[in-house]
Write a structure and sequence with these properties.
single chain; mainly alpha; 5 helices; elongated
Length: about 130
């Protein structure tokens, strides 16, 4: 399991990069004098980083990915709600409720990864090692 650094970096950096907009927008709100949206956005960013680390697949190798993905996806959807609220609601932001359907493609990884687990790759490696030693 120790040699899977690429996957670990992919999970951590990918999800962290997915939340960087919340941190940036929070700082912008803070400098605009909107302290409550700025502070709540920074808190939300901290929660997102904690969730990314706590629900990482190498910490829960036998848990299916779809269950692990629910936590960061939940925080991501919460950050979308935070952004809409920070801009004054759906009407003030120029969005309509149906614009939220643009978020559906973000859920695509739940399909192909639904039953896979972190430990599956270790089992496959172990099986291939046994085949090559014969």
């Amino acid at each position: 399991m120790d040699n899977r650094w690429g996957e670990k970096i992919g999970w951590t950096a990918g999800w962290s990069g997915g939340f960087i907009w919340v941190a940036i927008l929070s700082v912008v709100f803070w400098f605009q004098g909107k302290y409550i949206p700025g502070a709540t956005g920074l808190i939300l960013t901290g929660i997102a980083l904690a969730v990314i680390v706590l629900f990482s697949p190498w910490r829960h190798p036998t848990t299916p990915y779809w269950k692990l993905l629910l936590a960061p996806y939940g925080v991501f959807l919460l950050s979308v709600v935070w952004a809409v609220w920070s801009f004054g609601g759906l009407a003030a932001s120029g969005l309509r409720w149906w614009n939220l359907f643009w978020l559906l493609p973000l859920l695509v990884p739940l399909g192909p990864l639904s039953r896979k687990k972190w430990a599956d790759a270790d089992e496959q490696k172990g099986a291939s090692d046994q085949n090559t030693s014969v």
